[in-house]
Amino acid sequence: MSASEPPSRGPTRCKWDPWGDLMLRYHDEEWGVPSHDDRHLFEMLILEGAQAGLSWTTILNKRENYRRTFDGFDFEKIARYGETDVARLLGDAGIVRNRAKIEAAIGNARAVLALREERGSFDAYIWRFVGGVPKRNEFRSLRDLPASTAESDVMSKELKKRGFRFVGSTICYAFMQAVGMVNDHEVGCFRYPEV
Questions:
Q1: DSSP 8-state class, residue 19
Q2: Tens digit of each residue's pLDDT (9 = 90 or more) over 41-99
Q3: Cβ-proximal residues to 84 (8 Å cutoff; 6+ apart), any chain
Q4: Which candidate among 30, 79, 100, 102 keeps its CA 20 to 30 Å from the CA of 164?
């Protein structure tokens, strides 16, 4: 995200761009909040992968369509998708119609099921990359945020070994930020101490 002034109303926020109602709600209510719900974690991993090459605003605008077309991100259902489902999804203008990303979402659902079988939950597996506790950074500006970290590098490599796709280190770091594994709100943002 490029830096810009947040909406003038209300508290001090991170300097994201562009601001809109969806982005404002996402920033204020969800981004950086620790999540331990397997379905939400899967949703965010798929959405972050779908964002590759696009803006987060585009993905937020399509999020409800993703929820509808991907059965509420129920990975048990998605893991059973076949070619008919791929064709259905490719025909839906409400999502990013990219075959590789769609097939990756289906494959990632299968990989999550395998992880749950082995580890008990996707949550238990994914949070181990930060020792089970959110990492609290102290960035004063979005310019200071890294695109990836040592932790996201390791996560990316491990997920790829397990058959996940669209999980490069940058995508993994964005995922970690989204689900609260790291707190990357600017220290002056009202959300920084809250999450």
A1: -
A2: 999 999 999 999 999 999 999 999 999 999 999 999 999 999 999 999 999 999 999 99
A3: none
A4: 30
Question: CB–CB of 99/90 below 8 Å?
Answer: yes
Q: Return the active site residues.
A: 26, 48, 56
Pair 18, 54: CB distance under 8 Å = no
Which one-letter DSSP state was computed for residue 118?
Answer: H
Find out whether 121 and 39 touch, Cβ atoms under 8 Å.
Answer: no
Q: Which residues pair with 11 in a beta bridge?
A: none
> Exposed, middle or buried: residue 140 (CB in 10 Å: 0-12, 13-18, 19+)?
exposed
DSSP state of 165: -
Alpha carbon distance 75, 12 (integer Å): 37
What values do phi and psi take at 22, rounded to 5?
-65, -45
**Burial state string for 37-50 with b = 16 or more CB within 10 A and e = fewer than 16:** ebebbbbbbbbbbb
What is the C-alpha to C-alpha distance for residues 3 and 5, in angstroms, rounded to an integer?
A: 7
Residue positions counted in the chain: 195
Domain boundaries along the sequence of the chain: 21-183
CATH class of the domain whose range is 21-183: mainly alpha
Q: Whole-model pTM above 0.90?
A: yes
